[in-house]
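Q: Structure tokens for this one, please.
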Amino acid sequence: MTTLIGLSGSLRQASYNSALLRGAAGIMPAGSELVVETIRGIPLYDADLEASEGIPEKVTALKDAIAAADGLLLVTPEYNNSIPGVFKNAIDWLSRPDSDIKRVFGNKPVAVIGASPGGFGTILSQNAWLPILRTLKADFWSGGRLMVSRAGTVFNQDGTLADQKIEDQLRKFLEGFVAFARAARQGAPAASA
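A: Here is the predicted structure, written as tokens:
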């Protein structure tokens, strides 16, 4: 079984990105699963807090889940043409202490998708993740891209996908990323998507 951890970068109850993540979990390829985790409850990063109290329990549990998984799917909103602060904050905590970066992110297959009510999807936010993932030495999957634009027309009121074309694109994206994660786990080069 190929296991991916999925994180939405939004805390909003009716988030398009959380809906996209749930949609992805429901259409995973055979022999794979997407475990939806949350960044809710992660405090603002504060080095004094880390020094006095250590790594928060929520962060430790999420780090362990990511380290044990075959890959990580980041589902990112775009705020002011970049990464949401709450999502970046979570990754900052997950990279603490520095000595644990390799265990959690080193050579970990990572992919990024996102949804936005605007017309350009999340292209700038997705691009802004690249230097961060490079710094963490993650293995970024560049074999596919999914930027859902005009998200208000793509989802039903209950948050399920209403657009068959987007669902098909998501399915194809997931097939490619799962193949990449499986190949990485087996130490073989992945077939291009």
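A few notes: The first helix runs from residue 16 to 25. The first strand starts at residue 2 and ends at 8.
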